[in-house]
TrEMBL record, chain A:
<dbReference type="GO" id="GO:0016491">
    <property type="term" value="F:oxidoreductase activity"/>
</dbReference>
<dbReference type="InterPro" id="IPR051278">
    <property type="entry name" value="HdrB/HdrD_reductase"/>
</dbReference>
<protein>
    <submittedName>
        <fullName>CoB--CoM heterodisulfide reductase iron-sulfur subunit B family protein</fullName>
    </submittedName>
</protein>
<dbReference type="Pfam" id="PF02754">
    <property type="entry name" value="CCG"/>
</dbReference>
<feature type="domain" description="Cysteine-rich">
    <location>
        <begin position="156"/>
        <end position="251"/>
    </location>
</feature>
<keyword id="KW-0560">Oxidoreductase</keyword>
<dbReference type="InterPro" id="IPR004017">
    <property type="entry name" value="Cys_rich_dom"/>
</dbReference>
<feature type="domain" description="Cysteine-rich">
    <location>
        <begin position="8"/>
        <end position="91"/>
    </location>
</feature>
UniProtKB/TrEMBL annotation, chain B:
<dbReference type="InterPro" id="IPR051460">
    <property type="entry name" value="HdrC_iron-sulfur_subunit"/>
</dbReference>
<dbReference type="GO" id="GO:0051536">
    <property type="term" value="F:iron-sulfur cluster binding"/>
</dbReference>
<dbReference type="GO" id="GO:0046872">
    <property type="term" value="F:metal ion binding"/>
</dbReference>
<dbReference type="InterPro" id="IPR009051">
    <property type="entry name" value="Helical_ferredxn"/>
</dbReference>
<dbReference type="Pfam" id="PF13183">
    <property type="entry name" value="Fer4_8"/>
</dbReference>
<protein>
    <submittedName>
        <fullName>4Fe-4S dicluster domain-containing protein</fullName>
    </submittedName>
</protein>
<keyword id="KW-0411">Iron-sulfur</keyword>
<dbReference type="GO" id="GO:0005886">
    <property type="term" value="C:plasma membrane"/>
</dbReference>
<keyword id="KW-0479">Metal-binding</keyword>
């Protein structure tokens, strides 16, 4: 499997240019450290995140189709999206364009009015940052490049909702040995274990953080996040590794809110998996944007001798 | 079809008799609670079709009431009254009044798709929840939920410029829902960040709120989307037998 995806089209999405800036920085830095090439999609548009589908799901499909057309026009057959929301939406668009006549019609109509070609399902494959690293470098490749092992760091790997659900939009998952699993995802565990981390057995890997209503129904989100945090602590984790800017920001925000509103303080730190991997590859805290997180992990990293 | 259990055992449908004898047997006290017989005449026979006509609700007819969706549901675990399986049942039976009783919580679905993952019939219950929230608003049973206000704020920025700027979505959402930006926890959050962030990034974030990020040559796409949205809204209202003029 290794050696795939050496050079891919990169779709950062709006979140990575805003609150998820540290994820953008660390993803690019890790790519560089691993000699993988990212070419940003030219003039991309927002994928619609979790909101546009609630106005109309077919519009979401069009928004993603436009980005896939750009990848195709730039000569790529693979687009990498580190944000779970973007990844999910691109995958969902592929599924809907292949299976739903109505979605195809709307996409065709909007594309022609917007003045670009209509994307045809199957021309571009969407992968997540986890696939990108797993398939191009692999665990052995990571082990060979580790300069600053995460040894002694206990990590709860948190994948969230959109990386695994709903199952039908991820045809490459659940294909047995070697493939990713929707029920028991393990790619992040594999990557961080290769970087030396001690992964804890975290039962809430794919539980929901309430990200869809993080501001509109804060009490629900705070309860869900608190559950994720206290369970990670009970599992002995020092840090929760994330792979999605919405989950990441939600965890950080509601950790503070749980303390302020519910009086429940938790001390587990939250870092993007690319930040942890970057540190293992010998990058500095600054290079992976540790200071851009709300959840200040500097002390933890010092304590573990990682910086 | 399972019995219409929940509404039968509601407090207002129960009658307690202090002293009651039936066929010479004293059934008062704890055992004297009866469910009064009643007739239901207020069906909306079109209810399933109305939900099915809204985006996300298309496959509601496939439901066979196994309960996997509710069993898997994130929000149900926090609040047992949040019950997608039950709502789908009410919709399919046309029990509009019963459905409307839960109007204030249906919008709380967090779109985790656990129901959709678990559903053996490809009902896509997450979509049904969204369709039902829209239906409640369109029929005038509920004001716009905060979640819908957020979706609208977010989407209108995407439709206008092709991209969003987090800060602007946040500010506009707080303004529209009448919340203060100066809540304890938000202040604590921002203060923590300001002491750590590099100046260059702060400047970049500040600039983003002045020069809003946008996708180049987006105008034609924006116009096409606007036209589609208007059409869609009219179609939704028509499907519910509502005056299309009310569409914004
Ligand atoms: S998507 Fe909504 S209804 Fe479905 S399980 Fe999640 S919260 Fe429940
Ligand atoms: S899981 Fe699907 S079939 Fe079962 S009750 Fe829920 S919607 Fe109906």
């Amino acid at each position: 499997m290794t050696g795939k995806h050496k050079k891919v089209a990169y779709y950062p999405g709006c979140a990575l240019e805003g609150t998820g800036h540290a994820y953008n920085r660390s993803t690019k830095a890790v790519g560089k450290a691993l000699d993988l090439d990212l070419v940003e999609l030219k003039n991309w548009n927002c994928c619609g995140a979790m909101e546009v589908k609630n106005i109309d799901p077919k519009l979401q499909t069009y928004l993603s189709a436009r980005n896939l057309t750009i990848a195709e026009d730039m000569g790529f057959d693979t687009v990498m999206a580190p944000c779970n929301g973007c990844y999910h939406n691109l995958k969902k668009a592929e599924y809907d364009l292949a299976n739903d006549e109505g979605s195809r019609e709307v996409t065709e109509r909007l594309s022609s009015k917007a003045g670009h070609k209509t994307y045809e399902a199957g021309k571009v494959e969407t992968i997540h940052a986890l696939d990108w690293i797993k398939d191009s470098i692999g665990e052995e490749g990571i082990k060979a490049r580790v300069k600053n092992s995460l040894k002694g760091l206990k990590v709860a790997n948190y994948y969230g909702c959109m990386y695994t659900r709903p199952r039908h939009i991820f045809p490459e998952k659940d294909k047995g040995p070697g493939s990713e699993s929707t029920l028991q995802p393990h790619f992040m565990d594999d990557i961080l274990a290769a970087a030396g981390a001690e992964n804890v057995d975290y039962p809430l890997k794919t539980a929901c953080c309430g990200g869809a209503h993080t501001l509109s129904d804060s009490d629900t989100s705070t309860k869900l996040v608190l559950n994720l945090l206290t369970t990670a602590e009970a599992c002995g984790a020092d840090v929760i590794a994330t792979e999605c800017p919405t989950c990441h920001t939600g965890l950080e925000m509601h950790q503070v809110r749980a303390e302020k509103v519910l009086g429940r303080k938790t001390s587990v730190k939250i870092l993007y998996f690319t930040q942890l991997l970057g540190i293992a590859l010998g990058l500095s805290q600054r290079q992976v944007g540790v200071q851009e997180n709300f959840s200040d992990a500097t002390d933890l990293l010092h304590e573990k001798g990682l910086v | 079809m399972p019995i219409h259990e929940k509404s039968l055992i509601r407090p207002e449908n129960l009658v307690t008799h202090e002293h009651l004898e039936l066929d010479g047997i004293d059934v008062s006290g704890h055992w004297s609670t009866f469910i009064e017989s009643r007739e239901i005449t207020d069906y909306n026979e079109a209810l399933q079709d109305e939900i099915a006509a809204l985006p996300g609700g298309e496959f509601i007819h496939r439901c066979w009431q196994c309960g996997s969706c509710t069993n898997a549901c994130t929000v149900n675990a926090l609040n047992p009254d949040f019950n997608p399986r039950y709502w789908i049942y009410l919709i399919r039976m046309g029990f509009e009044d019963e459905l409307v009783r839960d109007k204030d919580i249906i919008w709380q679905c967090v779109s985790c798709n656990k129901c959709t993952y678990a559903c053996p019939r490809d009902v896509f219950p997450e979509g049904v929840m969204k369709a039902t929230s829209h239906w409640l608003e369109l029929k005038g049973y509920t004001p716009k939920s905060p979640a819908m206000v957020f979706d609208e704020e977010f989407s209108s920025q995407v439709f206008a410029t092709g991209k969003i700027e987090d800060g602007k979505v946040l500010r506009r959402f707080f303004a529209r829902t009448g919340q203060s930006l100066f809540q304890d926890w938000l202040i604590a959050l921002v203060r923590g960040l300001l002491t750590q962030l590099p100046v260059s990034l702060l400047m970049k974030m500040g600039l983003a709120s002045v020069f809003h990020p946008r996708t180049r040559n987006w105008d034609a796409a924006s116009a096409a989307i606007a036209e589609y949205v208007t059409e869609r809204k009219e179609a939704d209202r028509r499907a519910l037998g509502l005056d299309t003029q009310g569409a914004e």
